[in-house]
Amino acid sequence: MDISKTIAELKQDPKFAENVGMILVHNGIVRGWSRGDGSSVTAMEVKNDYEKIEAIRRDVESMEGIYKVVIEAREGVMKPGDDVLFLIVCGDIRENVKPALGILLDRVKSEAVTKKEHKIM
């Protein structure tokens, strides 16, 4: 995802300016080390439940003050440094947008994404 291009496209919506005062973006990247034990990771295999991701997106988009939610979740075998998850949350004020991004990220990661790290043995 080209974040700048996607935001520019979102701003073309005639109702954007009257509904959005903040955009938060998450760009998840494959780490070169394991969160569990710190060991080196050579690759990560990612699988996504796209129907669940869409349901979560709709849930978060219906939260108070949230105007639009965009998600791009990539899957397959990826190497450290690869982009794996993009989240964009557009809404009215930070008190609504910040928690919405946190909920979105936590739910997508826990409910709709499975990962398997490939490590150096």
- Poorly predicted ranges: none
- The tally of beta strands, per DSSP, is 6
Approximate helicity band: 25-40%
Question: Can you tell me the CATH architecture?
Answer: Alpha-Beta Complex
Task: Tally the structural domains.
Answer: 1
Q: What gross morphology would you assign?
A: elongated
Secondary-structure-based class equals alpha+beta
The CATH first-level class comes to: Alpha Beta
- Main sheet: strand order: 1-5-3
Q: CATH homologous superfamily?
A: Molybdopterin biosynthesis MoaE subunit
What does this entry look like structurally?
- With about 120 residues, the protein is an alpha+beta fold.
- The protein has one domain (about 5-120): Molybdopterin biosynthesis MoaE subunit (Aldehyde Oxidoreductase, domain 3, Alpha-Beta Complex), CATH 3.90.1170.
- It is about 35% helix and about 35% strand.
- It has 4 helices and 6 strands; from the N terminus they run ααββαβββαβ.
- The chain has helices at about 5-10, 15-20, 50-60, 95-110; strands at about 20-30, 40-50, 65-75, 75-80, 85-90, 115-120.
- A 3-stranded antiparallel β-sheet has the order 1-5-3, sandwiched between helices.
- α3 (about 50-60) packs antiparallel against α4 (about 95-110).
- The longest helix is centred in the last third of the chain and has 19 residues, at about 95-110.
- The protein starts with a helix and ends with a strand.
